[in-house]
Structure prediction request, 389 residues.
Amino acid sequence: MRILFAHNFYQQRGGEESVLENEMSLLERHGHDVRLVSVNNDVIAGTASKLRVAAKLAYDRRSELRLGDEISAFRPDLLHVHNFFPQLTPSVYWAAARHGVPVVQTLHNFRTICAGAFLFRDGRICETCVKGSPYLGAVHACYRGSRIGSLALSHMISRHRRSGTWHKMVDRFIAPSSFVREKFVEAGFPAERIVVKPHFITDDGAPCEGSRRGALFVGRLSAEKGVRMLVDQWRGIDYPLRIAGSGPLADELRSSASSQVELLGHLTGEAIRNEMQRARFLVVPSQWHEVFGMVVVEAFAAGLPVLAARTGALPDLVDDGRTGLLFDAESPADLRQKALLAIERPDLLEDMGRAARRVFVERFSADAAYPKLMAVYADAIDDASRRRA
Prediction:
């Protein structure tokens, strides 16, 4: 099969890039012909450039023509779009339609229903635009605090919602979790075209045997990740907590953390894997709707159980009492109680760590992902063929 991928790279690398690269490598290993057409936001510099991009956010004719040229040259069986924001725009779907190429779109965030992309505003979950007017995102300046940028995004969402783009132009959507699928169905996306297929990572082998100790947090040091609440609730707990990551709360956390909390700063992928091999459990105290939670999958691969907030996709990943523990995201006391339970029950953590590793192999490894991805592609091609017949 020949698969053309389309992706708009952000200025800072994120999880979307990892998912894209993992899928392309997986397909190449199985003998498929893969090509990537991409743009990078590094070229957006200065007010004039930003305004030009904002003006074409809903549709860019040049982007459509460029992708059409790529399709003509490569002749793919399918177009798989990961991110079209902000430069590729939904115009890429029209290029595929002109050439009769089926389209698969991965739903990495809520950008097509929420100007802020994460259903999170003013420090709390916000679902106003899921069913309401997208222009409320402009009223609240949900995109980076900019009303102009938010207005452009709100217009993009409204235009394609009204014109039925998501029903007419995309053959299959990939949702990384059941939670994400439910939110998009609630927002009016076609339920029959949204398939749940979790993200995956390459297996580095069975976890190293040896003693483990301490709790671990890995992620951005920002309010929505719940790290402030975690540090607050760790006061008085006589057990080490290591925090890997950087972000706007770094200085605040350094000054407020107890002696049992160590901030490690930004770590590379290998260093994070080493931390996961030595920790007793991972804490994911997110306060927003996590779309997936790649860090949970990485922990499972390392045989590391997870203490996670009951929000977003996290309950889809963590089986409470089997591969980790869940706590009420709005209850700091519940976080503390579940952390103390984990600390007091090393036998339970060992059992959950072994179960987490088994779940990784069964659900989140490359071997598990490949047949699911190919099934999505096959369904998209079949549906597109029936519509053209």
